[in-house]
Amino acid sequence: MLVVGAIYADTIFSGLARLPQAGEEVYAEQTGWAAGGYGISALAFHHLEMNTVLCGEVGDDLYGRALLDLFARENLPAGRIYVAPGGSTNVAVTLNWNGDRGIVSYGRAPLAPWAWYQDALEGVPAGSVLYLAARHPYADRLMDTARRLGHSVALSLSWSPDFLRSWKLRDLLAGADMLFCNVPEALLVTQETRVEAAGERLGQSVPEVVITRGADGADVFHDGVRESAPACPVVLVDSTGAGDVFSSTYVAARSWGWSFAERLRAANWAAGHAIGRIGGGSGSPTKEALLAQVGADPAATGNLRDHHDA
């Protein structure tokens, strides 16, 4: 599993009654910091015992060193994380209030050369999955290289209206095996007004399209079929990275040979587990916890527990 995308240092405030007005100070009930961006995805895969390599960048600064220390404590291999000399680490501040959130971010363009990413991709075992940020500057070259090497490609969207309307994205969709997006992204890419129509339209380019619907659960479109699963009821602490944990769990369950329904159910539970804690990646479940919880459903016990050692 190779995860390629921007890495952030996230500072999180939870339990705000409201956002501050100009010149005003408000207090949070909880706070913390965690790896953000595609660091969340990598940690989620790692917690699920997937052989994971994270390929991205941090700056040569306090945030960068803290992220590298965190990955070391998690035993997540960091040999493909480029430390940009004199560069700044991407930073985001998340404010959670009344079941919603707002984010203030600083991000910069990657400084590592193409060869850095190419070497990382060529170094993973044959038949791996490339979990790729669609907006990465090298996304098209990474996808072409992955296809040449026989890897699967899971493409992850993020909110950027100009990019979502672009022909570049349409070219990327044609080379992906899986696509992960939320409802606003799916509707904007397709210019449809209904989720079902958007999923069907995206399914003309990508064999497996997964659309997350927040508190309403998620859908997967495949082989002309739509399957849905509800979200799990949870107490929201921090919604940062819920979609990333969902997608990582879905891809892991797919690699274990689980059915589409089982993938959705497992991914929804994992996302719910994550938002009950500060920090998406830090709050993502272990494989043992996932199997214990999702496998507890008598209707699912057979298939899910058969894959315990996968």
Structure description:
This protein is an alpha/beta fold and 310 residues long. The chain has a single domain, classed as UDP-N-acetylmuramoyl-L-alanine:D-glutamate ligase (3-Layer(aba) Sandwich), CATH 3.40.1190. 36% of the residues lie in helices and 25% in strands. It has twelve helices and 13 strands. It has a nine-stranded mixed β-sheet with strand order 5-4-1-8-9-10-11-12-13, sandwiched between helices. The protein has a four-stranded mixed β-sheet with strand order 3-2-6-7. Strand 6 and strand 7 form a beta hairpin. Helix 1 packs across helix 9, helix 3 packs parallel to helix 4 and helix 10 crosses helix 11.
Keywords:
single chain, about 300 residues, alpha/beta, UDP-N-acetylmuramoyl-L-alanine:D-glutamate ligase, nine-stranded mixed sheet, four-stranded mixed sheet, 12 helices, about 35% helix, globular, disordered C terminus
The helix content is 25-40%
Tertiary shape: globular
The chain-level mean pLDDT equals 91
Enumerate the strands of the largest sheet in spatial order, edge to edge or round the barrel: 5-4-1-8-9-10-11-12-13
CATH level-4 homologous superfamily: Ribokinase
Q: H/E element string?
A: EEEHEHEEEHEHEHHEHHEEEHHHH
How would you briefly describe this protein structure?
The chain has 310 residues and is of the alpha/beta class. 36% of the residues lie in helices and 25% in strands.
Fold blueprint:
Elements: E1 2-4, E2 7-16, E3 30-37, H1 38-47, E4 53-59, H2 62-73, E5 81-84, E6 90-97, E7 100-106, H3 114-122, E8 129-133, H4 139-149, E9 152-156, H5 161-164, H6 167-173, E10 178-182, H7 183-190, H8 195-202, E11 208-212, E12 218-222, E13 225-229, H9 242-255, H10 260-275, H11 287-294, H12 301-306
Parallel strand pairs: 1-4, 1-8, 2-6, 4-5, 8-9, 9-10, 10-11
Antiparallel strand pairs: 2-3, 6-7, 11-12, 12-13
Helix pairs in contact: 1-9, 3-4, 7-8, 9-10, 10-11
